Amino acid sequence: MTAESFSFNPYTPGHNVDPVPAYRHLLEHAPVYWWARGQAFLLSKYQDVVAFMKDPRFSRAPRDSRNYQPPPELPGNELQRAASDNSILSVAPADHLRIRRLVNPAFSPRAMERLSEHTRQLTREALARLPDGDVVNLAAVVNDIPLRVIGRLLAIPGPLEPAFLEFAGCRTALLSPTLTPEARIELLRGVGVGYEAVRGLIAERRKQPGDDLLSVLIHHEEQGARLTEPELLGLVGAMIVAGSDTTLHTLRFMFLDLLQHPEQLLRVRSSPPLARAAMDESLRFNNLNLLGNPAHALEDLTIRGVNIERGQTVIPLTGAASRDPEAFERPDEFDIDRPDLARAAFNFGGGPHVCLGVHMARVEGEAVLQTVLERFPEMSLAGDPQFAPHGYFRVMCDLPVRVRS
Ligand code: HEM
What we know:
Elements: H1 20-29, E1 32-35, E2 40-43, H2 46-54, E3 58-59, H3 78-85, H4 93-103, H5 109-113, H6 116-128, E4 135-137, H7 138-141, H8 145-153, H9 161-173, H10 181-207, H11 213-224, H12 229-243, H13 245-260, H14 262-270, H15 275-285, E5 295-297, E6 301-303, E7 306-308, E8 313-316, H16 318-321, H17 358-375, E9 380-381, E10 386-388, E11 395-398, E12 400-402
Parallel strand pairs: 2-8
Antiparallel strand pairs: 1-2, 3-5, 4-12, 5-8, 6-7, 9-12, 10-11
Helix pairs in contact: 3-10, 3-12, 6-8, 6-17, 9-10, 10-12, 13-15, 13-17, 15-17
């Protein structure tokens, strides 16, 4: 393929299975690439992506995009709108800083360690539900785990968990860029019902606080009216959007990468603390994103000599940046011992919006991997993984694993 004939399309069949040839082309020939279909510039170089994440000349707020279209006005959609407008993902910098200061302690490494045993329990339950057989689909085992861990953090009562999972499913499905207007309206209804239920929980926790995340944050709200109810709802929505699919797909790739490198799987089995390195290296080697989180230029600027006008959108291709040979030695090798592994953490973001749930994701990765290895110490790959189309992520729907020889 010549530089001229190359056209980037994350939805080309096969790209979700192996995006590396396209990444290589972008890295070598077009590190700042105008993607016409998505009306956005794509960044591929590690250095550019890291600088972009910290650059105050970019805004995460959708309304700062010149292509912004307000969501449809629907009766009953007020809570979804309030949550989105007040979400940590998109509020103005001063509000963002205030919210982060309030919520950061609740996501500290220590606080997140408390989720470890529950995650192990959820994993054991998922494993116990597997049908009998020598080969299992490991991709399905982890399906609900990240969302149910978020549910635990919020102390969603057991009987309400199915409704919470449904709400979260609607909320994440809303992100899809290919929805029909009817499907969007249907999902917005489901999300509205979900936010109403969360509001009910907030009211209950006001009367009867516990030691869960909502109670802690409500306490802040009452202490100095510094965290409003829409901000609380926005945070719940942001956790669902940012913390469920990301973790789910990363867990699946971590299993795939280790199964494809059995000598490293063996090392993780004999030295469980290596599970965290495995997760970070998987995020780098098989990054889950088809596209990264977009941001919009607040002023005219240039990157590598390419002009970007105010209101134009830039998307970091974290998967490409993860294979940048200027940042990573032997970028196409999976190696949980790589000396530059610390750099892979850029996949959790950088700058003010750096992932709030990074410690939570790592605790989950470690707990799930160790629990599966305890149950299936001899597991091995039984066939090729299968992928399904998706708007943002590389979705592995089938990971056939032989669990008994
Ligand atoms: C492997 C799993 C995960 C990955 C790869 C990931 C990645 C990211 C990235 C790249 C960002 C944006 C950073 C930026 O724009 O600079 C982000 C933000 C965020 N993440 Fe995660 N994340 C993961 C898991 C989680 C989990 C488990 C939670 C649960 C609470 C979570 C909650 C958030 C939130 C709330 C934000 C927005 C922070 C802000 O805007 O200030 N993430 N994450």
